[in-house]
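Give me C-alpha cells for this 390-residue protein.
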Amino acid sequence: MHPTYIVFLLVLLCSGCGGERDTMRKKKPRVVESIADLGALPLHATDPKDNPSTPEKVNLGRLLFFDPVLSGNKDVSCATCHQPEFNYAEFLETSIGVNGRGLGSKRRFLDQNDIPFVKRNSQSILNTAFNGIANNKSYRPELAPMFWDLRAKGLEAQALEPIKTLEEMRGTGIQDHMILDEIIERIKRIPTYNQLFSSAFSADPEPVNQRNLSKAIAAYERTLIATNTRFDQYMRGDSNALSTSEKDGMNAFLVTGCAKCHSGPMFSDFKLHTLGVPDTGNRTESDAGANNDYAFRTPTLRNLRYTAPYMHSGKFATLDQVLMFYEDIAGGKILNPNVKAGGIDSLATHMDVNFKDISKIVEFLNTLNDDAFDKTVPASVPSGLPVTGL
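Here you go.
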C-alpha cells in the first residue's frame, strides 16, 4: 500500500475518533435526583428570635385569624380563604374575599358587587412555618419566602399583606396606607383584645400595635403543621411505611425530574419558574407574575389531597391534570398564549413525564398527606362578629 494512502487513512481514523469524542462530550447524561434530595420535616417549627412562641400569643393569634374585625368591611377574616377543613386553603379556583357570602364552594359575591376575585389561588397555610427549609442548610424563619411571587419574607410580614389588599380583606372604603391604623384602633376599643394583647406582650407598654398583631397571627400559624406523613415515617427509618407501589411511584417522581424543583423536606425549591400555566378565567387581566415573565414560586406538594385546585391560577382540578400539563410542556405544548416557547423554564422542558407514570406518581404523592393537624375553630371572637365572616 502506498505510504501516502496509509497516512490518509490514519488521519481519517483519528479525525473520526475525535468527532466521536466531541459527540460523547456534548451528550452529557441527565442528572437524576435521588431520595437524598427529598427529606422528612422536623417535628417542630423554629421561631424567630424576636417572636418566641407562647400559649398566650398562639391563643390571641387564633382569635385574630378567625375574626372579621381585621377586614375593612368587617365581613371577611383570614380563615375565609384559609379554612381548616381544606388544609387551611379552600376549594375554589381563586378566592372571593371582600363583598362575598358563604364559605368554600358555596361562597358567592353579593348581587351588588364591584370587587374582583382574589388574584391567585389560595395557598395552604399548613406547614408554611417550614417555608424555605432545605437539606443540610441553616433555616431562618424570618427569611421564609411567602406568596406565589415571593413578595414577603417570614410569617410576620405575610400576616399583614392580605389585610392591605383590596380584594382580599381591605375593600374600597379605606385606603391601603390607612387600613392597618384603622384595624389597630378597632382592636383597642375591644376590652377583651386589650387584655389578651397585654397578656401576650406584657413587656410592651402599648401592646396593641401592628407589630404585635403580625407576631400573634404568625405565632398561631406556626402551630399549623403536619409532620408525620407516611413519607416522613419512611424517611425516619420505617421501611414499611410505604408500599412497594408507592416506592415505585417515588422512583418515578425522581426519574421524571419532578424533584429538580420539588425538593427538600417541603418538596419545593422556593424559586420562581416560568411554566406557561393558563390564566384563571376569574380575572380579565393576564397574571404575569412578579417580574412580568409569568414565573411563580414552586408550591409544596404536601397535603395535596386537601388543597385542590392546583397551580397559582387554580386551573387544574386534579393531580393527574397537573402531571399531564408537565407532559405537554416536555412535548413543546404551551397552554398560556402569553408565554413564548423560549421563556419556559428548561427544568420543565427537560422533564420526562409519561402517561404511564402518572398514576404511580400520584400514588406516591398521597403518602405526603397528614390529616392530624389542628383544626380548632373558636366558638366566638372578641369582636362579637360572626366567626370566620359572613
